[in-house]
Design brief:
heterodimer; A: about 550 residues; mainly alpha; globular; B: about 110 residues; Helix Hairpins; about 0% strand
Chain lengths: ~550, ~110
């Protein structure tokens, strides 16, 4: 058992070493680079599956659900701590799955569109894995910056005026948000004297009333930084353009980036301001609830207004973020459990959607609609498309249009949350939690804002269905002259794989809900996290 | 000392925010740099202001922690400076690329009328 604890550091070290190694290989040796990158990502996937099983094998009731790995063997509050629990294991697995899918997709063409794609990609995976594993606020900042620095490079991958302009906005906004992050972290350190999340959760109790205001200010500023990353209204206007401008495999992995913001908000709000926090209980919950609802409303109108499919997918990311934020703001274990299921399902769906869009757009007649033309004029045609036909490797997919159509239909069902796919189960689980706040069967009075949220979630599904139908008809049925797109097997396989995972989520829905419920319950019981990090002797201080 | 530092942070932040809201990319990058200086000073001040004290204990572990400077914010500020420097350098490259591709130094790539 002892050596398995060292697996915790593997998701960080593996991409780091692979990324550094890739720097040494010459740019012209595409195949070797692709093989190293692919091997590292596959190993990452295997590791995260093992880690998920490890996290799931710890019983919820026993109190300790976190496995902490103190780097350099310093004792907990001073060490750099890595923490694994069900939530972080789930997020890690999601990163690895989507990472593998987008990497395979990029092997058809994109990985040769610019230098150092594989290195940046591995560093992005490293930053994401670190952000999900760390138990320390400042290391969270460092891993965030690693992720963002890699994402700046990846967003610009393939170049072109449209990408560079969106990249400029993306970088400027994220730099400003990082500064807010630093202000928040240092305020919290100045007041509480610690940056370890578990230690912080304990010290909150002992703070004098005067310092508590400063801590609230620090936490609020920190929260704003994460709301920017998660794309909450009114801090989200950069997101659709940036995601639309990025190359297809890059936007697929970017879908996970917004979930980092949601993850941290979920983790910190329940750990620091959970049921044990006394006067601070529920701090920020109302704001997250309302800003989540505003995000859903804004993104729903965006979904309806989008002409280009890339923009539609960008707004779908926002719908997902907004729904998750509002669910986190409710702060109820059953809602959070449903929200985690929704997080997995919607992340897989939107990632598959971004990759599918590139394939579907090839089926469009040139100049099929005005916006496609304007997009090309903005530089979509700059460089990467001209080089393709001669040096493509791999097998061309037969019956491409039929498969693309089926995938498109599945994505529409998943985004709209219609049965029989996992989007329906996810929304059903969330809505059941919202409408039964006192537990199933007990009649509860439901406040108007919950009704509003329920209505928004359902309406956003309807809007997604309408928008998807409109673009589906425009793409597959309306053109008089159908251009059968050249689709390679390595391009369609990741899309089909991600959608098959959604199908698996539906079939294995019971097991998945069991896992997310256990994750939500342990999140709502911060003492187990604290004991896991700092050791059982801290229990009395927390249990009062 | 407190007043001087607070004023310095305030002036840097104020000018930084004003510059970030300006439409030229060069103003943006200078604004972000000023903001990051302000934030670095702010992190530093969170370890309590103190002049002429060492951040380390004696070799035998002697010394009263209350008489020493807090080393953690100093470590944090170093990390923040390095990261801020690297990302600002990257932003500069993007600015130059945007200037070359769009022919304009407006942040939107075209002049607003």
């Amino acid at each position: 058992m002892e050596w398995t604890r060292h697996l915790l550091v593997v998701p960080i070290l593996l991409p780091l070493v692979a990324g550094a190694l890739l720097l040494l290989i010459d740019e012209s040796r595409h195949t070797l680079k692709a093989l190293v990158s692919l091997a590292s990502t596959m190993l990452l996937l295997v590791t995260t599956v093992v880690l998920t099983r490890m996290a799931d094998s710890v019983p919820v009731e026993s109190g300790i659900v976190s496995l902490s790995y103190a780097i350099a063997s310093w004792p907990a509050p001073f060490a750099i701590v890595l923490v694994l629990d069900r939530l972080s294991a789930l997020m890690l697995a999601l990163v690895a799955v989507i990472g593998l899918a987008s990497l395979v997709f990029s092997l058809a063409r994109w990985h040769r569109a610019g230098p150092h794609f594989h290195t940046l990609f591995q560093f992005l995976l490293m930053g994401l894995a670190g952000a999900f594993l760390t138990g320390d606020l400042f290391n969270l900042f460092v891993f965030f910056e690693v992720t963002l620095a890699a994402s700046y490079g990846l967003l610009l991958h393939g170049s072109g005026a449209f990408r560079v302009r969106s990249g400029l906005h993306y970088i400027a906004i994220n730099l400003a948000a990082s500064l807010l992050f630093l202000i928040g972290v240092s305020l919290i350190y100045g007041v509480a004297g610690t940056l370890n999340m578990a230690d912080l959760a304990i010290r909150l109790h002992a703070l004098p009333a005067g310092d508590r205001v400063l801590l609230q200010a620090g936490a609020a500023i920190l929260g704003i930084a994460f709301l920017v990353k998660a794309g909450a209204w009114p801090l989200c206007f950069w997101l659709p353009s940036a995601y639309m401008a990025a190359a297809a495999p890059v936007s697929a992995i970017f879908v996970v980036l917004t979930k980092v913001g949601v993850y941290v908000l979920l983790r910190l709000s329940l750990l620091l301001f959970g049921s044990q926090a006394g006067e601070l209980t529920g701090f920020g919950g109302t704001i997250m609830l309302w800003s989540g609802m505003a995000t859903v409303a804004f993104a729903t109108s965006g979904v309806l207004a989008s002409q280009a499919m890339g923009r539609l997918a960008g707004y779908s990311v926002l719908v997902s973020s907004g729904t998750l934020l509002a669910a986190v703001g409710m702060g109820d274990a059953a809602v959070v459990s449903g929200a985690l299921f929704y997080l997995v399902s919607s992340t897989l769906t939107t990632a598959a959607f971004f990759m599918l869009i590139e394939l579907v757009e090839r089926a469009r007649e040139p100049g099929a609609d005005l916006l496609a033309v304007t997009r090309e004029a903005y530089g979509e045609d700059s460089g990467e498309d001209e080089e393709r036909d001669d040096d493509e490797v791999g097998v061309v997919m037969p019956g491409a249009l039929a498969i693309l159509g089926v995938c498109f239909g599945c994505v529409a069902l998943l985004l709209a949350g219609l049965p029989p796919l996992s989007g329906f189960i996810a929304k059903f689980a969330m809505l059941t939690g919202m409408l039964n706040l006192d537990g199933l069967g007990t009649p509860a009075s439901i406040p108007p804002r919950t009704w509003l949220l329920v209505a928004l979630v359902i309406l956003s599904g309807l809007a997604a269905l309408l928008a998807m139908m409109r673009s589906g008809i425009g793409t597959f049925w309306a053109p008089l002259e159908v251009v059968v797109p050249r689709v390679l097997v390595v391009e369609i396989a990741p899309v089909v794989g991600l959608l098959a995972l959604c199908l698996l989520l539906t079939i294995k829905g019971g097991a998945m809900i069991g896992y997310t419920q256990a994750a939500a319950l342990s999140l709502h019981d911060p003492s187990s996290y604290i004991q896991g990090v700092l050791g059982p002797q801290q229990a009395p201080a927390v249990a009062r | 000392m407190e007043l001087t530092l607070a004023l310095a942070i305030g002036v840097l932040t104020g000018s930084g925010v004003w510059l970030v809201l300006r439409p030229r990319t060069y103003q943006l990058v200078i604004g972000l740099s000023l903001l990051s200086y302000a934030v670095n000073l702010f992190i530093f001040s969170m370890g309590r202001l103190r002049a002429g004290t060492a951040p380390v204990l004696g070799a035998d572990g002697s010394g009263n922690p209350a008489d020493l400077a807090d080393p953690v914010p100093q470590a944090l500020v170093l990390t923040a400076i390095v990261i801020g420097f690297a990302t600002t350098a990257l932003l500069l490259v993007v600015l130059i690329a945007a200037r070359g591709l769009t022919g304009s130094d407006h942040v939107d790539g075209r002049e607003s009328r």
